[in-house]
Design goal:
This protein is α+β, with helices and mostly antiparallel strands. The chain is built from 2 helices and 9 strands, in the order E-H-E-E-E-E-H-E-E-E-E. A hairpin with a 5-residue loop joins strand 7 and strand 8. The radius of gyration is 16 Å and the shape is globular.
Length: 148
């Protein structure tokens, strides 16, 4: 067996409407409506039938902070230019979303935020000048702060 690509992520959320608004209004994912008697929603960037499934569970403990087992973050590619990353930063600030970090990973440049339930998201651009298939030197490069 060989996995072709990551198909989708499923997140439990406290408030489905709030989470759908965050992922659709702010991140631009398209919602195909609700399923499971209105307790879940399917969202896509248009690449496939769904990349995100949100399931409402009501009030519950959120993600643990710090070193722990389990999901660290979900990365969403938002383009391949620094201008796109700057636009995203400005949209996040305008929406009142706290930015937890902005980093240069050499092969990507990223902004880190949390969704309404505290799940960490990496919004990143791919750096087209790095050919990751033929040049693996980026792996050993340290993560650097990015001032945009």
């Amino acid at each position: 067996m060989k996995v072709e690509h990551l198909g989708h992520v499923v997140l439990y959320v406290e408030n489905l409407r709030r989470s759908v608004e965050f992922y659709s209004d702010l991140l631009g994912l398209e919602s195909y409506g609700t399923i499971f008697n209105g307790k879940a929603a399917v969202l896509t960037s248009g690449r496939t039938h769904h990349e995100l499934l949100l399931i409402e569970v009501g009030p519950a403990p959120g993600p643990l902070a710090g070193r722990r087992l389990g999901l660290y973050h979900v990365g969403w590619c938002i383009g391949n230019t620094l201008e796109q990353l700057i636009q995203a930063k400005n949209q996040l600030i305008k929406a009142g979303i706290q930015i937890d970090g902005i980093t240069d990973h050499t092969i990507t440049k990223s902004i880190y935020v949390k969704d309404p339930d505290g799940n960490e998201l990496e919004l990143y651009i791919d750096c087209p000048e790095i050919d990751w298939k033929t040049d693996s030197s980026w792996i050993e490069n340290p993560i650097k702060a990015l001032n945009i």
